[in-house]
Amino acid sequence: MTTVSVLASPSRYVQGKNAIAELGTHLKGLGRKPLLVADDIVWGLVETSLSAGFRAEDLPVTRVGFGRFTTPAAVDALVEKIRSGEHDVIVGVGGGSAIDAAKAAGHLAGVRWASVPTAASSDAPTSALSVIYTEEGEFIEYRFFPRNPDLVLIDTQLVAGAPARFLVGGIGDALATWIEARATERGQGTAMAGGRPTRAGTALARLSWDILWENALPALDAVRAGVVTPALEAVVEANTLLSGLGFESGGLAAAHAIHNGLTAAPQTHGLTHGEKVNIGSVTQLVLEGAPTQEIEDFIVFTTRVGLPNTLTEVGLSPQDTKELQAVAEAATAAGETIHNLPFPVTAEDVVAALVVVEGLARRVRAEHGLPEPVKYVAQH
Ligand SMILES: [Zn+2]
């Protein structure tokens, strides 16, 4: 049995309105020849203030574009760019994919790496791991690195200007963190950082949860208005820093394993990471036999936030026996984090929980006067 505990964290975390203008200042201690990874849309948003900050620090601005998913080929292409351009630090700017690709490439090329998320859409930016997908967006593997990013910088004005759906996804990802860390702590599970969860990791997962219940709805109001408020600052920290430290050093369990299983169902393609994770969270609560009130509160709250909590909203139905079986088998594969639950879980258990979630969430929503779920149709 593992007896050590590990806390993994980035060396520096910087958050605030217009923080992007200070990226050069925080980066210059890490390298003199940065390679920025950002798609065209993200680059259009950050180029002016980022470049001014780089000029002030005498840093060259070199940017490479990025596709949709963190695929093995995309990572290898970035490694080649780092080598041919002799870059000493790689900076992932934008969503989770560019950031995960930059981390994986920085590790392979042996240079430092930094994360600059432009939305608070997942907790990927702080961690020492990347999730690798196929060209179609199906989960392939986790890649683990010996170091976290040297720098994570998030500009809350950019978050306020990003689509509200991105923040909704980040909230779904961060809510799962406490549900999963709690289960890992209760059982004999291991955290992603290795070893048993640290008390710090578990406590930060809980803090993230508490902040979200208090601030998620007003933070979404702020994003819809395009402005930064204290509630938005709190949620950005919960989604990015606290959830990141909480999942990595507190442990993942069923919610993310079920997310990984859902990526194999083409019906779910196009949904955000956090949207799929939320189905995993509700399913985990059912699998655990969590108190009825707790499950109902979670359904009511996540419906208000705008997260899916029925199969319908991720393009599936309880009658999709074949798909649900495939999701459950992937979720319960050997080595998956679902086995951090403090009891044995089979694919059959997961199918049963997934099937129950549909009727349960529909009933709770109806009882609270909340809208019926709308069928999600993946765009191909
Ligand atoms: Zn996640």
Could you list the spans in which at least 5 consecutive residues all have pLDDT below 50? none
Query: How many distinct helices?
Result: 13
CATH topology-level fold name of the largest domain: Dehydroquinate synthase-like, alpha domain
Strand residues, percent = 5-15%
Q: Between the first and last Cα atoms, what is the distance in angstroms?
A: 46 Å
Helicity range of the residues? 40-55%
Integer tally of domains: 2
CATH class of the largest domain: Mainly Alpha
Order of helices and strands: EHEHEHEHEEEEHHHHHHHHH
Pfam families: Fe-ADH
EC number: 1.1.1.6
Keywords: Metal-binding, NAD, Oxidoreductase, Zinc
GO molecular function, one term: metal ion binding
Summary?
With 380 residues, this protein is α/β, with parallel strands linked by helices. It has 13 helices and eight strands.
Descriptive key words:
380 residues; Rossmann fold; Dehydroquinate synthase-like, alpha domain; 2 domains; 6-stranded parallel β-sheet; two-stranded antiparallel sheet; binds zinc ion
